[in-house]
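WARN no homologs supplied; continuing
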Amino acid sequence: MLLYLDVSYDKFLKQGKMQNLRDLELAIHDGAVKRIRPKTMTVMSSLLGLLPIMIGAATGSDTMKRLAAPMIGGLVTSFAMELLVYPVIFYFYKRREVRKLMQNKSGGES
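OK structure emitted
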């Protein structure tokens, strides 16, 4: 996700579209949208692969359920973190940089 966010941010900077904090939000949205499909497909295929383990009742299933449950929790947590939390952290991190750019542009025009 961070790679996609960085690439989108740099693209907006090179194109001169990074004028205010709203442009930063648009850059983050642009980068995050490109990551939704690959992340969703990866998580869903892994969850579908673990589903038979969780509903199975054959020999050894009690041990396998104990192994699969944390994996499912990790997948769900990773999905939520990558698509909901990382873009917000990136925004707060880059907000300072964008404010400096805005100050330099307004200070240079005086």
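The chain has a mean pLDDT of 93.
OK
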